[in-house]
Amino acid sequence: MMNSFYWASKKNGRRGINWMRWEKLIYHKTRDGLGFRNMEAFNLSMLGKQSWKLLTDSTSLLTRIFKAKYFPRRDFLDAPLGHNPSYTWRSLWSTQHLLTLGHMWKIGNGSKINVWTMPWICGLPSLKPSTTPPLHYNDLTVAHLLHTGMNSWNHALVRSLFNPSDVAAILATPLYSTRREDTRIWKASVDGSYLVKFAYCICIDLLHASITSHDNHIWMALWNLKVPPRVRSFL
Q1: Residue 17 lies in a domain
Q2: What domain range includes position 131?
Q3: Rounded Cα gap, residues 122 and 141, in angstroms
Q4: Are 129 and 162 in contact, with CB atoms under 8 Å apart?
Q5: CA distance 27 to 208
Q6: What is the pTM (predicted TM-score) of this model?
Q7: Which of 2, 51, 78, 186 has a Cα at 20 to 30 A from 96?
């Protein structure tokens, strides 16, 4: 319907011309598209806001009900779809990949964070160490990298386990001044809370992951031309 509204014209009883396929219209303007809202991606990002409660608010009624029924001994991100799931659970479960990509851990006492498999290092692109885990260290938690009774890094241990780039990123990772619980935060927001806008961007990036687009600078230059908007859209 959005495609037809934008391109089609039924004046004089004639069918309008669809100048560009719908899959191109939903690309961002910096990626040779027109920035139309993708309803499937937007719906997923909205569902993710509800699923975020399952990760961050263990006291909510929503979390207690779904955890008791679908993942009593697991984390939401590891929960299986299960046998004969409800429509609501199936919808929330579909956001697991989105939340996996969008969240990271804020270090408290470090006891919940597996060093190798969970995202927690701000200074690295993957948020995880690039070092291969040493033998017998697969279950290492961030708590083991901290001084006992102190919220500071054990520099000697960190340097003995990780490569130089990981060491620099880990030691630059800030810690709370006092011990507290580890918490999940939404990595794209300033205060760590879930934002639909950033979740939508992740969904769109997933759709475009296999697509090679032109240089962003070219398209930004086009959209910044001092000409009427209709001319920019046509170009």
Answers
A1: no
A2: 108-181
A3: 16
A4: yes
A5: 8
A6: 0.81
A7: 2
